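re: ur question from earlier - yeah i can do the single chain one, its not a big deal. heres the input i used so u can compare w yours
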Amino acid sequence: MPAGAAAGASAGASAARRPEAADPGPERAPALLSRHAELLTSFKNFAFSGSLVDLAVGLAIGAAFASVVDSLVGDLILPLVAAIFGQPNFDALVLHLNGAEITYGHFLTTLVSFLLLAFTIMLLVSAIRRATGREAAGAQGSRECDHCKSFIPVDASVCMFCTRDVEPVVPG
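and the output i got, formated as tokens:
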């Protein structure tokens, strides 16, 4: 076969394939629509499932709670610290060492702010738990079953895999 004929045959073969690839054909169109509809239904079920909506609400409430706690610390508690120590922050504290300027005061201000924020959150959460009567959830974590070596919750009294009795680990 001459070289030109081989090139022409190759070009003709790819040209014959191109319309096939561009047009899915009438028999494949319903399958594609069905797949897209199934994907859309799956996404709708996922997006509007209770757990995702609960997560979105939790994030929104968490962001609002964070701004309230941040305001409490920044507008009420840090000024009280400033009244005790005579200044609202320690940013002016600088150490000069071999021509280098180490601003450890900014670190101290950030550290004090973080500790006060964490302490305030701890007090608010404990007050909310006392007010609602809800204590912390059960023990969290896992341990290995003595019998089947599967991982089970630390407070389990029966292994969920081998169904044998196990001694619960009670955090003390």
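Residues 67 and 73 are 10 Å apart (CA to CA). not sure if urs matches, ping me
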